[in-house]
Amino acid sequence: MRFGALLGLHGLVIRVDDLAAAERELREALGLSVLRRTRREVVLGEGPELFVRLRQAAGARPPVVEEIHVAVRGLETRAGRPDALGGLAVVRRVSGSTLWVREFRSEPGPSWRKRRTRSRPRRPRSR
Amino acid sequence: MAAPARRSPGGRGFGAVLLDLDGCLIDSNDAHARAWQRALERFGHRVGFGRLRMQIGKGGRELLRDFVRPAEHHFLAGAMGAVQTRLYLERFGREVRPFPGAAAAVRGMRRAGLPVVIASSADRGALERALRRLRLADAITGFTCADDVRKAKPFHDVFSLAIRRFRLGARRPVAIGDTPYDVAAAHQIGLPCLGLLSGGFPPKSLASADGVFDDLAQLWRGGRERFA
């Protein structure tokens, strides 16, 4: 796997035993909104660029980071596969977690599209 | 409408031209704004055409700073730009027209011995497509574009690189552009800039240009004596 530059971490998938508590704590701590929700998982964040996906664990266990998503620039094209986030991604197993190395290249698929927002002009700071 | 253009510093004529593409050679600013509007919508942003239209002329990354959040900008600006270019090129044939007399003016400059370098914030694909349409590939000395620099207009980098790459520093170059971002970029490095109203920006937005003309054909017809 080759790429030009590492842009940063943009997503985590965490398995938790108390989905509701983890969601509440993360929303309070980071102010993240809910991108989508099912009975067994909730995706918090703004869109593909920044998300935390919480999955319900089968029983009472310590939280486990299942997936780590990082964004890069200049990913060697042959290595990657298109994904639903609008990226080209390479997947590796790293110490029990799955590492996704992704270059964003196009618009996200429907499941990752944020609700449309009307952007407002920036207001100059008052002195 | 034409305001007088200053001569180059020292009173001698300008000896090389750094020419913007969109709004100068091709009537494409509206098409770029529409493509940005559609691209941003695909990423969940609804932005009015008028707001985007006033930002055309900036590089994609610079334009996006006003419309997306910092994390989106950091991770998705490249993808947003790629989608915008794709959407723009899909409609290029239908929506974009060369300005009458603009390509002929470039050929006239070339015949007069002036090196002409296209210095644009567009990406390479869009620029090469336009040059093919204009049949200007053989008439220009070369080009610099957004892909060549870290920061596109309103930063000076495409102009600085053009001067360096084509060794124009000693030839008293002048920039020609249609947006306030061309003027700002040129003036950052002390480069004179002639403004064109063909890009649809209001005359007052080009007030700091070193001369304002209706379009490139008029500039070359009426301002020829300003060139060496």
Secondary structure layout plus pairing:
The complex is a heterodimer of chains A (about 130) and B (about 230).
Chain A: E1 5-16, H1 19-30, E2 34-37, E3 41-47, E4 50-56, E5 64-73, E6 81-82, E7 87-94, E8 97-104, E9 117-118
Parallel strand pairs in A: 1-4, 5-8
Antiparallel strand pairs in A: 1-5, 2-3, 3-4, 6-7, 7-8
Chain B: E1 16-19, E2 26-27, H1 29-42, E3 45-46, H2 49-53, H3 60-64, H4 70-90, H5 92-95, E4 97-98, H6 102-111, E5 116-119, H7 124-134, E6 142-144, H8 157-165, E7 173-177, H9 180-188, E8 193-196, E9 212-213, H10 216-222
Parallel strand pairs in B: 1-5, 1-7, 5-6, 7-8, 8-9
Antiparallel strand pairs in B: 2-4
Helix pairs in contact in B: 1-4, 6-10
Task: Describe what you observe in this structure.
The complex is a heterodimer of chains A (127) and B (228). With 127 residues, chain A is mostly beta strands. Chain A is 9% helix and 47% strand. Chain A has an 8-stranded mixed sheet with strand order 2-3-4-1-5-8-7-6, with helices on one face. In chain A, strand 2 (34-37) and strand 3 form a beta hairpin. The model of chain A has no long low-confidence stretch (mean pLDDT 88). With 228 residues, chain B is an alpha/beta fold. Chain B is 42% helix and 12% strand. Chain B has a 6-stranded parallel sheet with strand order 6-5-1-7-8-9. A two-stranded antiparallel ribbon of chain B has the order 2-4. In chain B, helix 9 links the parallel strand 7 and strand 8 (193-196). The two termini of chain B are 24 Å apart. Mean pLDDT of chain B is 93; it is low at 1-5. The chains are: A mainly beta (127), B alpha/beta (228). Strand 9 (117-118) of chain A pairs parallel with strand 3 (45-46) of chain B, so a sheet runs across the interface.
